Structure formats: structure tokens, C-alpha cells
Amino acid sequence: MIIIMEPKASKENIDRVVQVLTEHEFRVIVNQGEIHTVIDAFGDKTSITPGRISALEGVKEVKIIREPFRLASRDRKSEDTVIEFANGVKIGGANKPVMIVGPCSVESEYEGLRQVAIAAKEMGCEFLRGGAFKPRTSPYDFQGYEEKALKYLKRASEETGLLTVTEVMDSADLELICSYVDVIQIGARNMQNFKLLRDVGKSKKPVILKRGLSSTIREFLLAAEHIMYNGNENVILCERGIRSFDSTFTRNVMDIASIPVIKKYSHLPIIADPSHGTGQRYLIEPMAKASLIVGADGVMAEVHHDPENALSDGKQSLSIPMFKDMMTRVNAMKEHLHYEKNCLSANVD
């Protein structure tokens, strides 16, 4: 619920409201405005009625938030969340869309990853991604090189200045992964692994949360809510396709509409992953462009130095020449969209 205090409410009035809410095990955030103090309260609404809060001295109004994803909702925060990194890269808001590229898995020889990283830097990308711990459908498939892969990502980052992204599968690996990379990723299969979401929430490390294979948009945003409720608001959502009855031509259905829907209801940045969303390399460019047109804050794409011999997801990976060719067109499109967004923002202001 949201409690709006009277303009002349005293500190004692505010502290009393916070005390009552805390006694009923609500998580409380106090926002001091120029005119009103607004208190966000998150907890079990059945434990205390809005009327009980309204009766407290200094309370002007109590609003019940309808959507269950409260921290991620625009009802709580109307402006876009922007996540900024130490090197100045920003994701979200009116900033230029970012590119997150790299192989599905970091493989045994560093040179292949290095080639991809150099190409990514050359084409203006901001992030290098690669799997160290790989969640695979079959136990017989390649599972990742773990810390060796993390060291390769770190080395590539030091050589190129790119920020790094890798997936975490287990809370036990979280501390190790956070010590190597700039952004952690929660994959589709772990979107509702609530213990992992809670632990990632406590880590404060920026996180890319991928949409589950069969999850609704509401379930997707509630997964983000778990991370935010535990203290980490640096959440980047990622649309990566959902399961369908037709898997003949594409691996998943790329739900482009989810991007503007989420932009309407949530302040969190959202990126798109057309590699997993389609499972076909020829669809990466058109779906990346479509995602950017409808408002995505970035694109994640799989790029491999030798896709035909990749240990995982070679079919949906771009070769380096294909990647460079695509980026020439995507970069031109990004510049145009960024210009339009800034013009629109200026007109609104």
C-alpha cells in the first residue's frame, strides 16, 4: 500500500506510521517529497486494514496497489530506472540501447573468446557475455568450464574494456561469479527459483533476469519483485521467447509485444534476446531490429568465432563476419532511434 502524509505531518506522525507498519511485518520505504511524504509499505494486507492506517495522525490518504509487483510497478516509480556502470555505460531511460554479445559457452581455448571480444569492441558493443556454468536439458551435454571460463571473461574484459555477463545457476556459486563479472544473469529455467532470486537480491550486483519458458508477463515481473524485495533494484529484464505448439521453424515464440507492455507497467529496463527467442541465426537481425523499434533498452545476441564447431547453440550463433555485417545496420538504426527518443523527451519537457 501507499500512504500519503499530510503536507504538515510532523516527524513524529511519520515515525508512528512507520512503527505501526513495521510491527505488522511490513517492509517500509519512506520517500520525502517537497510537499508530501509518501510511504511505500510491502507486506500482508490482511494483517492490518487501510482504515487502521488512515486513522493515524498526519495520514492524508491510503492507496492500495492493485498489481502484485509493487516495487517494479510504475505506480511506485513513474520515471524509468537507469542502471549505470563504473565506466559510464547506462541501461534504461533515454539512453542509447546497449549490445550484449558473445558465445553461448566460454570454451577451452581463450583465443576464440578474444576474437569475439575484439569484434564486439570494434562494433561499439558494451558487454561481452558467455556461459561458465551451463544449464543443459541433457546431463550428457557440455556443462561449462566454470571458474576457468570466468577467468577468460575477466581477461577479455581487461583487454577490451567491455563489461561482462554470465549466468548463475546456484546460490553456492554466486560469490565466486560476482568476483569476476559485472552483471549476473538468471536464465529462463531459474526465473522462479525463489531461493536464487532472494540471494541475488541480497548481492546488489546488477542482474539480467530472463523470462521463463512458459511464464506470463505478470509472473515475470513478480520474479523481478523477489529480487527487488530483497534489496537489489538493479534489475534488467530480458525477453527471450516463450514455448509454443509450433517448434518446426523457430525454437521459441519471440514475444515482441511484451516489451511495450512491460514499459507501460514497469519502470525497469528490458532487453531482448533474439538468439534464444528464435533459435535461428537468420532471424537474429530482424528480431533485434523489431525489439529496438518497440522500445527495448538493448539486445543480447550469441556470437561465436566458429559456430559450426560450437559446444552449444551453434545454430543460433552469428559468425564474426555475420555479426559485423549486422551491427553496421543495427548501429545506424540505434542512432536514429536514440535521436527520435531524445527529440520526444525534449518535446515532453
Describe this structure in words.
The protein is an alpha/beta fold. The protein has two domains: 2-63, Phospho-2-dehydro-3-deoxyheptonate aldolase, domain 1 (Alpha-Beta Plaits); 83-348, Alpha-Beta Barrel (TIM Barrel), CATH 3.20.20. It has helices at residues 11-23, 50-54, 110-122, 147-160, 174-178, 194-203, 217-229, 258-265, 274-278, 284-293, 320-348, and strands at 2-5, 27-32, 37-42, 59-63, 83-84, 90-91, 98-102, 127-129, 163-167, 183-186, 207-210, 235-239, 270-272, 298-302. The strands form three sheets. An eight-stranded parallel sheet has the order 13-12-11-10-9-8-7-14. It has a four-stranded antiparallel sheet with strand order 2-3-1-4. Strand 10, helix 6 and strand 11 form a beta-alpha-beta unit. The model has no long low-confidence stretch (mean pLDDT 92).
